[in-house]
Amino acid sequence: MKNKLFKITEDRSQFPEKNADGKIDIDLSSHKYLKLWQGPQHPGITGNMALELTVLGDEVMHCETHVGYLHRGFEKLMERRKYIQCFPIVCRVAVPEPDFNEYCFASAMEELAGIEIPEMAKWLRTLVLEMSRLQSYLMWIGGQSGAFGSGIIGQWANYLRDLVLDRFEELTGGRIYHMYQLPGGVRGLLPDGFKERMEETLQTIEKFMGDIDKVMFNNAVFKKRSVGIGYIDPAWINKFGITGPNARAAGVAKDVRKDYPYLKYADLDFDAIVGKDSDIYTRADVRRKDLLLSIDLIRQIFAKMPEKGDIKAKTPNVLHWKVPKGETYSRAECTRGEYGYYMVSDGTEYPRRINVRGPSYTHAIALLEKMIINTNIADVAGLMVSLHTYPPEIER
Amino acid sequence: MNDIKTKFDITDIIEQRENLSFITIPKEHAISLVTYLRDVKGFKHLVLLTAADWLEDEEFQLTYLLNNPDEKSDLGVRVFISREDATMETAHHLWEQVATYQRELKEMFGIDFPGSPDVDKPFILEGWDDKPPYRRDFDTKQYSEDTYFPRPGRESNDPAEYMKKKLYPDEK
User: Which of A336, B9, B135, B149 could make a disulfide contact with A388, Cβ separation 3.0–4.6 Å?
Assistant: First the structure.
């Protein structure tokens, strides 16, 4: 039937031959090729970026990533701010995961200043990082299912994310940006009844995840469009600097939480989630399992953390705090991979240089531009979301 | 570390923490060292490549932060280059993402990497003809005051005076 409606041929002689360097000569005046912009305003684009596609028929022959639609100059701005004044800025580097920015910035600063934070603060930081992971994955599920035409899952996931944001609001006062972690510790203890309400939220998420498993992961259309597409060769992991679920789905167990245990991760019982097939489906499945792992970790944190304790180490007056001269790098595992802050201090009240290492810097440019070749136009959005790219990390 | 010290002209070693050190090397030997570390010493993962501007010393500091995934350790290779002649050998052949880093460094700091793909192509800024904005001597405040004008009808107040007026209007 399919063959009667559309003439499908395996003969690819109509496609251009590649040069010795693996590239093709694109001549737009030949009218064989078409330039097609996906983004910056496009439902199939993650955030503010654009893909300049050159297509032949419906197949992508060349792609160039364009960023610069959201450049806020945060790294430069921080050089004009005292360390404490940087906290409202760092959380805004990445909307889905402000807490990883807060943690990396605070821990780099604490390391340079030689401050050890109290146990209770470590537990609370671990908790907010896992809550942040949970809500970020829920946001991603909507994007991944939406890219393959299933909008309803995004609506469920958004509802679930809102429940996690409710808990964030209780704990920190903010829904999206929290500024909960400060140099030396955190701002507050858990409110009364927080654990019970969080448990209720986790149970709701688990119930919906069962439905999402059926409707998305066991769905014939989703499988058809994601299995075997967007393969990442394990040999590319170091070559492209791939981290997080994109690496783990290729069978490379890279997880900062396990490899370089920070905060209280060494006290928690878990294994890095690893996949095998390294296609869009496997990456989605690794993220789904990681989401469920986050739920488990939050329960473990509640079971193991003390009820009370100091939440803040003694620090100098934050308005006149001269951080000792030096440089360091602090990293954490966010939902997209290795997130890190490189901090250089010149011994004054202002940072000399802050550099944010977002995983999308390589996933959304070098890797995406390579993977997208020979993809069907309709799969571009799905492929991009499967790399969980996030442009504001590229143009901090 | 001793092995690297005997082979290369390393000038400075800082052990920041158990699994993170910084070393300094002259510009001419930097890419050879980075290649050696990648191919022989297991520092296969490039975490980041960035620069810091030491305006008072007339130097840029380039940092290649490398990670050894097997030994779980990091090494920052620091290279100081003159601000006058801000040029560095390209490393785009070592890791695929380096070309993007170098393109950004060219645009934001004005550090050139001859031979790096698309290094002169605008990355984030479009039609920029001013000083590279991440240099310390680029004054962001001055730039915005010169480039953008105050919107008509918009008042600007001294925050302390304004709050006083609002909260305690009767006080003189």
Answer: A336
Structural domain count of chain B:
1
Kindly list the domain boundaries of chain A, sorted by start residue: 75-359
CB B64 within 8 A of CB B21: no
Looking at the domain assignment, is residue B166 inside a domain?
Answer: no
**Section A352-377 average pLDDT:** 89
Q: Is the pLDDT of residue A112 over 80?
A: yes
What is the distance between the alpha carbons of residues A124 and A134, in angstroms, rounded to a whole number? 15
End-to-end Cα distance, chain A: 51
Q: With pLDDT > 70 as the criterion, what percentage of chain A qualifies?
A: 96
Q: What dotted CATH number matches A75-359?
A: 1.10.645.10
- Residue A395 touches chain B, beta carbons under 8 Å: yes
A365 part of contact set with chain B, CB < 8 Å: yes
Chain A residues whose CB is inside 8 A of the B74 CB are: 329
Put simply, the answer to whether B53 touches A241 (Cβ < 8 Å) is no
Mean pLDDT of A116-135: 94
CA atoms within 13 A on the CB side of B38: 21
The reported pLDDT for the residue numbered A14 is: 63
Q: Residue B101's domain spans which residues?
A: 2-150
> Residue B161 domain-assigned?
no
| Residue A170 distance to chain B (closest CA, Å) | 30
Query: Which CATH number belongs to the domain containing residue B107 in this structure?
Result: 3.30.460.80
Tens digit of pLDDT for each residue in A23-66?
788 888 888 888 989 878 877 777 788 899 998 888 888 898 98
Asked if residue B160 belongs to a domain, the reply is no
